[in-house]
Design brief:
The protein has about 500 residues and is an alpha/beta fold. It has 19 helices and 9 strands. Strands 3-2-1-4-5-7-6-8-9 form a 9-stranded mixed sheet.
């Protein structure tokens, strides 16, 4: 049975349980179960490899000892074990990150986890279904993203706060173009479920790891931070699945909550799709310079990314069109970016890449720290022939980036192709000087000069554009309501004092 079929069966089982209300809770329920199963799979591998192996958590709580037997405990006995024994023990483990790092990872994973299921028989059925997936199989480990993606697609509100699954094609293209090397620190400050980090790990492993010592180096290269508990747990699980034995460098917290000045500039590579379209909580903006304070998440992350990159460090960041054409604080941030970094390439993505989560137009900004921008190359990735829009059944594929990858630079070896030398303008690519950008007041939303404006008479496409505009207007209204309500609440409180 395929992974997708197993997950569909698990969802159907959970729908029968009175304690699980909606897909969000189903995802939360599945996450801690997945973690324990994959955690134990890696433990069994470590036990085989290490002569002095010691279990990082009490052995009775390892998946193999309570869940692996399809005829094992079930019903009220299973429910009592999970609620009254397993959860309290793992949440309250006495472990240190230095002496028992894997035990520390387990404790962190369960810090905010919760068992929603109230029917022990149904819980056993879910566990048995999970036992049909062999995550130690190399082929199946790469399908982990499918599990999250499939459930996330069921979450109707997934894109409301700028949170959505980054298509695998986009992730792989970005990592290929950035080409992280062995020994370079690789960071995603809003890592979600770890798609960029997992892809980066695989890239280095496949291209640059030659022996066990190299693998040890790679183990320590990956760093990430995720604000929300659920994606953090999934990211930790994802890292375990990809072979990172102790993913303590995947932190649970808000990257933006620290003053910008407190960060060290020590990162070689950043690959990220930070949340956009949302706003940060009150006070977060105070961690940033006065002239660049904003509550818009994407703008804050862009500042942070520039700050933490070391000299000659490089980044690729997915950002919305609003960042390109926005004014005010956005202009100040873009000016800072171009003064401190060489913003050498902007890849403009087709409108529907992130469907069904959002219709917001997006771009990939590639830049390197240490030299100011003098010219920017743009590349507009077109929709494939015969496709009007990407969707669930026709997502973007890596080969849709082939023309862009071939244009990136000329040369025989992969490294020469990534050098960006001898680029040529064509129907999809054009170059813009710094002087032109400055004259436009740093408006980077520059249209393809080789493409004539096409008048679209397709009714479906026109209706889709209309709906997109209405969604944008409604989102703006909602933001204004929030800002107005906060202002009125502040005035009310002050008037009572």
């Amino acid at each position: 049975m395929s992974v997708r079929s197993v997950i569909k069966s698990i969802q159907d089982i959970m729908r029968k349980d009175a304690g699980v209300d909606g897909d969000a809770q189903r995802l939360g329920q599945l996450s801690w179960l997945l973690f324990l199963k994959i955690f134990d799979g890696q433990e069994q591998q470590l036990e085989f490899e290490q002569d002095n192996y010691r279990a990082p958590i009490p052995e009775k709580y390892l998946w193999r000892n309570w869940a692996d037997d399809d005829q094992g405990i079930t019903g009220d006995v299973l429910l009592a074990f999970v609620n009254e024994d397993l959860f309290p023990t793992l949440k309250n483990l006495t472990v240190s990150i230095d002496k028992n790092p894997r035990g520390f990872v387990a404790k962190e994973a369960f810090s905010d986890a919760f068992n929603y299921m109230k029917n022990g028989t149904l819980l056993r059925q879910v566990i048995n279904k999970l036992n049909e997936i062999n995550f130690t199989n190399t082929n199946e480990r790469h399908l982990f993203g499918d599990i999250y993606e499939q459930i996330l697609k069921d979450l109707q509100s997934a894109g409301n706060a700028g949170e959505f699954y980054t298509p695998r094609a986009v992730t792989r293209f970005i990592v290929q173009m950035i080409d992280p090397q062995l020994g370079e620190t690789i960071f995603d400050p809003a890592c979600g479920t770890g798609g960029f980090l997992a892809c980066s790990f695989d890239h280095v492993e496949q291209n640059y790891v030659k022996n066990g010592e190299d693998n040890k180096v790679l183990q320590g290269q990956i760093r990430g931070v995720e604000k929300k508990q659920l994606p953090h747990l999934l990211c930790t699980t994802n890292m375990l699945l990809h072979g990172i034995e102790v993913p303590v460098q995947i932190k649970h917290g808000n990257t933006l909550s620290r003053p910008l000045s407190s960060w060290e500039s020590d990162i070689d590579v950043i690959v990220s799709n930070p949340p956009f379209g949302g706003t940060e909580e009150d006070g977060i903006e105070k961690n940033f310079p006065a002239e660049m304070q904003t509550r818009e998440t994407a703008d804050l992350f862009l500042q942070l990314i520039v700050e933490v990159l070391k000299e000659k460090g490089r980044a690729a960041v997915v950002l919305p069109d609003g960042t390109l054409f926005g004014e005010g604080v956005k202009t100040t941030i873009k000016k800072m970016l171009m003064e401190e970094c060489n913003l050498h390439t902007i890849v403009r993505l087709p409108n529907s890449v992130f469907a069904p989560y959002t219709s917001i137009k997006t771009n990939i900004l590639f830049f390197e720290k240490g030299q100011p921008t003098t010219d920017i190359w743009y590349y507009e990735v077109p929709l494939p022939a015969g496709i009007k829009a990407f969707n669930k059944t026709k997502p973007m594929k890596l080969e849709d980036f082939d023309d862009c990858a071939n244009w990136w630079g000329e040369g025989g070896s992969p490294q020469e192709k990534l050098s960006r030398k001898n680029r040529q303008a064509n129907e999809q690519a054009w170059q813009v000087s710094l002087e032109e950008v400055v004259a436009r007041n740093y408006n980077l939303d520059i249209k393809n000069p080789h493409q004539k404006e096409v008048i679209n008479h397709d009714l479906d496409a026109l209706l889709a554009d209309y709906r997109e505009q209405q969604e944008g207007i409604q989102a703006l209204r909602d933001k204004l309501k929030i800002i107005l309500n906060e202002a009125l609440s502040t005035l009310y409180v002050e008037s009572k004092q």
